[in-house]
Amino acid sequence: MKDSNYLKEKNARSLWHPMTAPSDSLKNPPAIIVGGEGSTITDVDGHRVVDGVGGLWNVNLGYSCQPVKDAIAAQLDRLPYYSIFRGTSNDAVIELSEALRDFFAPEGMARAFYTSGGSDSVETALRLSRQYHKIRGEGARTKFLSLKKGYHGTHFGGASVNGNANFRTAYEPLLPGCHHIPAPYPFRNPFNESDPARLAQLCLQALEDEIAFQGAGTIAAFIMEPILGAGGVIPPHPSFMPGVEAICRKHGILLIADEVITAFGRTGAWTGSRLWGVKPDFICTAKAITNGYFPFGAVMIGEAVTQVFEGDESGRAAIGHGYTYSGHPVGAAAALACLGEMQRLNVPTLAAARGTQLWAGLQALKARYEVIGDVRGGYGLMLAIELAGPGKAAPPKAQPGQVQATAYKAGAMVRVSGPNIILSPPLVLTDSEAQTILDALDAGFAAL
After folding, report:
1. What is the Cα–Cα distance from 389 to 395, expressed in whole angstroms?
2. CATH class for domain 68-345?
3. Are 167 and 133 in contact (CB under 8 A)?
4. What does the alpha-carbon distance between residue 322 and residue 326 come to, in Å, rounded to a whole number?
5. Distance between CA atoms of residues 378 and 355, nearest Å
6. Domain 31-64+346-447 maps to which CATH number in 3.30.70.790, 3.30.559.30, 2.170.270.10, 3.90.1150.10?
7. Where does 54-177 have alpha helices with state H?
8. Which residues, 6+ apart, have CB-to-CB distance to 144 below 8 Å?
9. Could you report the per-residue pLDDT of 350-389, keeping only the tens digit for each?
10. Which pLDDT value is given to residue 26?
11. Is residue 3 predicted with pLDDT exceeding 90?
């Protein structure tokens, strides 16, 4: 490995980083991570911290999960790659598909379609939704509905259903026919409603109103995260997603659950859909499916959609979509090992325990620091602190970054997204590591 000075000097000269301006990397060199073990990471200067970000919501089993590493190495030795396009398959992806069908049986999932990551999974679900309606002779159903504040990746389809202007404005015009309703976000919403149950009903009525305005016969699908992630960790009231499901069923609209973050235990339940008792038509997954060790994703397809595609004899069900790395055997082997390890550890119980600890600690911080406007979480290891000025005014832009920088020096990596400081640590986090995160944030707010 090159020395520290070389890496720091060359970083911004040779690459652009996602989700930031190129000039920012020149002015504010990033932390250069060179090692990881368990729930901790080490930077190029030897500074070791607890990873409160979990990579990017994905390293649920930590950085030293040997069964997954062994599965990847063994598959590389045996078959490092082969396509699953028409006419070929591989044994690892078949085994994984059976395991995932069993895992997602409570959500009514029947088939898997493989991708290279979360944005690919969303794109796949959007495309198959339109095709489903065309097979059924309802080709006018082309529109998509989603939530403001929702995040669904960076492809043109995903950016179009995203509910945050930061991911849209620079790339417009986007996909036509994408419309958004207010998110059930008690801290800030157009109804000025702070009661979560009442707000959920207002948002559901907004969905009904939008469907009536657009015409139900023109809408292909509604897509949502069971708990909004990148938009600031916004858990809806328990009545909201079941209400969305009921409205979609009434109007013949497909429901896509974007579980790229929430699947595989992060919410304290095995999936976000299971948390709310919902059976969507598609479930988009990626991230924790391979613990971040290999780029891989899967779209799980519900029984009703499966029957329409597999029962068609008109030729309209031929899937003209896929990726070079769909069903990659190394990714499939990694996913199989991850699934086994997640089930062995029963990671939802781990996420619930540490999430409860962090939730209580963040509430205590909120009581001490006026700059903390809202604390959100309460469902596993998905938590956020929203900074705010008097009267919920937006905080100075530099403040979240200042807290992040001090917290890093004090022993924890946390993530900034707008006015929010987001926590999504590995699900194998220990109680002492959770306390380190809380202590580091305390130091950050004290310095601020």
Report:
1. 5
2. alpha beta
3. no
4. 7
5. 7
6. 3.90.1150.10
7. 54-57, 66-78, 91-103, 118-135, 156-161
8. 126, 129, 160, 161, 175, 177, 178, 179, 219, 220, 221, 222, 223
9. 999 999 999 999 999 999 999 999 999 999 999 999 999 9
10. 85
11. no
Residue 71 contacts residue 337 (beta carbons within 8 Å): yes
For residue range 165-216, what is the model confidence (pLDDT) as tens digits?
989 999 999 999 999 999 999 999 999 999 999 999 999 999 999 999 999 9
CA nearest to 160, candidates 192, 138, 130: 130
According to the model, what pLDDT value does residue 117 have? 98
Domain ranges within the chain, ordered by starting residue: 31-64+346-447, 68-345
Q: 245's torsion region: left (phi>0), alpha (psi -120 to 50) or beta? A: alpha
Instruction: Indicate the residue type of 382.
Output: M
Max intra-chain CA distance, the chain: 67
Distances (CA, A) of 223 to 151, 156, 158, 249, 382: 10, 15, 10, 14, 20
Helix (H), strand (E) at residue 114: strand 109-115
Residue 359 near residue 377 (C-beta atoms within 8 A): yes
The answer on pLDDT for 323 being more than 90 is yes
Tokens of 16: 């652009």
CB 283 within 8 A of CB 257: yes
Which residue type occupies 113?
Answer: F
Q: What is the pLDDT of residues 266-307, one digit of tens each?
A: 999 999 999 999 999 999 999 999 999 999 999 999 999 999
The answer on pLDDT for 2 being more than 80 is no
pLDDT of residue 25: 84
CA dist list (Å): 92 to 55, 71, 81, 104, 293: 26, 11, 11, 18, 16
**DSSP E strand boundaries for 264-360:** 282-285, 297-302
* Percent of residues in the chain assigned helix, strand, coil, to nearest 5: 45, 15, 40
- Amino acid of residue 392: K
